[in-house]
Design goal:
Layout: H1 2-19, E1 28-32, H2 34-38, H3 47-65, E2 75-78, E3 85-90, H4 102-111, H5 113-119, E4 127-129, H6 146-190, E5 194-195, E6 198-199, H7 212-222
Antiparallel strand pairs: 1-3, 1-4, 2-3, 5-6
Helix pairs in contact: 3-4
Amino acid sequence: MLRTLLLTLSVVAIARAELCKPDAQNAFKVRISIKTALGDNAYTWDANEEYLFKAMVAFAMRRYSRKSTTQISNVLLCNVTDRVSFWFVVTDSSKNVTTVPGSEVEAAIRMNRNRINNAFLLSDKTLQFLKITSTLSPPIEPSTPVWLIVFGVVLCLIVAGIVFLVVSGIQKHKKKNKESTERENLEEKVEVTLENGIPCEALDLKPGHINGVFAADDERFTSL
């Protein structure tokens, strides 16, 4: 009985080893750059970090499939290097000797990429799933609602238009009054006042000048 149990466990271990190896079916390679991301605050990648990684992958699978069947033991790591790179696969919990299709694993990782990055204080550039494309960061929502920004812009344009119309109207009114005043002054200068049918400007009233009309009358009546 004991020999049978040991044989079974060894077969399972060999099968699981065959499931997780470089370029195996449904396997993914991970490369982590802790020193690049955190500098002097970098932590050491050890068994605890591996356990956390397995837990995060199991969490991603459970959240993606909405099933509670995936366990930490279903996530297998292999070929771990000192420069922190390794391969992993997710085994099928019902059979435990086959892997979950890579498309499902990829979808689960992409769906929970930010949660996984945050767990290790890393980003898409320092925690790389080489066969899984980086996800776009969620759009930053402005603190002010968009409709309020649009309303403010439109209101500013309306106010600017009203101010422009008022200022231009005042300037036109001032210009019109100035032109009217200048026209009146010009008319006063050009206007010729007639007195007794003779233009006043035609009369030269300089001191000592004798009007020819009265001069003729004086010659007729004063000579004796």
